[in-house]
């Protein structure tokens, strides 16, 4: 790849694969997040991620109708990449976005009377 950011990202993936032994699913997750980031950020912006480009990335995702929980997965992947960039000396300052607040969904539980069948309503109870 001739893009310096894409080259760094490939190096990040190799190190995650061989030094951190991440799963193929995690690698796929990183790739999807990076691809979405590249599509959201114009080519004339800073070559390395900044807080502003990451914020712009999230705004673009939300404009497209991406749910906050999905945005948070992308933010997590890009935060990991940015931590790696700083550890490797490619950026000086820590670049990290906070995750979006998401609505908590509660599952309504059934009470014992509904869950436990009585002897009369049980299909396997034998008639006397």
In words, what does this structure look like?
By secondary structure, this protein is an all-alpha fold. Helix content is 54%, strand content 0%. The chain contains five helices and no strands. α2 (24-40) crosses α4 (68-87) and α3 (51-63) runs antiparallel to α4 (68-87). The radius of gyration is 23 Å and the shape is elongated. The mean pLDDT is 84.
Brief overview, please?
By secondary structure, this protein is mainly α. It has five helices and no strands.
Please specify the SSE layout and strand pairing:
Blueprint: H1 4-18, H2 24-40, H3 51-63, H4 68-87, H5 112-115
Helix pairs in contact: 1-2, 2-4, 3-4
Give structural attributes.
128 residues, mainly alpha
| Annotation field: number of helices | 5
What's the helical proportion of residues?
Answer: 40-55%
- The rounded Rg comes to 23 Å
> Beta-strand level of the residues, as a percent range?
under 5%
Strand elements, count? 0
Q: What structural class do you assign from the helix and strand content?
A: mainly alpha
Mean pLDDT: 84
Apparent shape: elongated
The SSE string, one letter per element, is HHHHH
C-alpha end-to-end distance: 77 Å
Note poorly predicted spans. none
Biggest sheet character: none
